[in-house]
Amino acid sequence: MGRTDRSVNGVVNRAVTDLGGYIRAQRDTAQISLRQLAKRAGVSNPYLSQVERGLRRPSAEILQQIAKALRISAEALYVQAGIMEPRSGGPVAEAILADTELSERQKQTLLDVYASFRRENRSDAEAVSPGKGADGATAVSTEAVGSEFEE
Questions:
Q1: How many C-beta neighbours within 10 Å does residue 33 have?
Q2: The pLDDT of residue 136 is above 70
């Protein structure tokens, strides 16, 4: 085994260990026992225990089942497993994806709105367009706003 093979194996092993710790942390946050999670995800207790300890590397399908059982984003698990690159958006996007009180649809909606704000701010920074102030705020006449809300 060459030096490159060892370093790749080391990265994979760390990712699997990190994934297991992440799953365990999400399970603890959700206050679900290992047995409950295994049952909800449709996997055996020993298998899930091995995943959490970093001894097993679950497939994308199993990760999806675990994510559904934890009520978290499958994307978050895919990123932890190294299957998928993280979305841009930094800690805000990560927090949205990790929130167990939001549905997948709500998470996606929030991420879409957040991404649109970021795109808008990038384009505002590149060039201040007519109708926008130096701070990037859209100039709106009070007459236009007033007419929208009049009964």
A1: 11
A2: no
Give the domain CATH number at 24: 1.10.260.40
The amino acid at residue 125 is A
Buried-exposed string 51-82: b where 16+ CB fall within 10 A, e elsewhere: bbebebbbeeebbbbbbebbbbbbbbbbbbbe
49 and 94 together in one domain: no
The closest of 151, 45, 26 to 98, measured between CA atoms, is 26
| CA–CA dist 84, 80 (Å, integer) | 8
98 and 78 inside one domain? no
pLDDT in tens, 82-96: 887 766 677 888 788
What is the pLDDT at residue 62?
94
* Residue 104 belongs to domain spanning: 86-129
Measured distance CA(50)–CA(77) in Å, rounded: 16
